[in-house]
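## retry 2 of 3
previous attempt timed out at serialization; input unchanged, resubmitting
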Amino acid sequence: MLKFNYYSPTRIVFGAGTVNEIGTLIREFKVKKVAVVFGGNSAKKSGLLDIVEDRLKSEGIDVILLGGVVPNPLLSKAKEMTKEAVKFGAEFVLAVGGGSVIDTAKFVAIGVASPDTDIEEFFFQRKKVEKSLPIGTVLTIAAAGSETSDSAVLTDDVTGTHIKKGITTDYNRCKFAIMDPELTYTLPKYQIGAGVADIFMHTSERYFTDILGNHLTDEMAEGLFRDIIKFGPIGVKSPTDYEAMSEIMWCGSVSHIGLTGLGAKGDTPRDGDWSCHQLGMAISALFDSTHGATLSAIWASWANYVKDANIQRFAEFARKVYGTDEADDEKCANKGIEKTVEFFESVGMPVNLHDLLNRDVSEKDCEELAINCSYKKSRSIGSFKSLSYDDMYNIYMAAR
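## retry succeeded, writing output
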């Protein structure tokens, strides 16, 4: 186990009806103006925004509503919202939504704290983040884990690169996260399934690493795998099943809070492999596909491509997570990959690019994806097995 410095300051307020505590929670920060970031009309139609606004105003807090965040959130929208929040004089940023909304809110909070600096400077990492407004969230989608993570991801629609990338900093840590499973009851089943896939993948990215020997960390990851595999399909089938939706919601936070990667980071910038996320983000950037679905579409092709780097790791995954009793490591590993494909299918997720995009995928498509993912052949990705442009192209081709 490598050295680590674990930091997770986010206060979790979990359970039915906890949204009613929003005014009390923000009051503790002694602020008078709050920018509320949200997505589409669902938060309005459900009455959730009315509840949030009412609770804040009852505490004497002024509110500006900043809506319009889309899935695969855009840099341009974050820039627009930042200007409005600066003009309003926001002292706190509250995200009401899922990962896309929270990630946008994080950039807005950074931008408002440095009003003389264009947030492009932070996005492209030309300038280091040194301050931010406090951020909180009312979670409505269990998926990205952004409510407990230190990262935020946007798509560059400003300079024309259409690269999806993000920044990682402790300034991205939410001060609190209100997590009420009942707020997820009205989600479309596809969104629930995509969230379940994303949760699985946040755990997978940390589990399949070149740094081994983290036994307790592995046990936590394997337990999370088993839990999401059990309750994910139940939640997709029955979105108002409180037990299933509460398990999915808590799995979402724990999967991205860092616990399942402890001991695998050391002095390196990442606590796992993260190849599938990079491969998936290129798909989202070029084809505007749902994030979780891009991960399920690419996972098996990635797994089959890299498994020989440590076949025993994939065999251990199959034995601990699925109870596979094959004695031969290669057969066991293959069984684990097959079982994972079946799991993704059980929550309605695509397991190849054809199913994801609903069309044939050409060699040219794969070339464009590999160019985007490799930043025009300027970088490699992954730690379980380092992947070059050619490797990325081969994985996309295998995923067709």
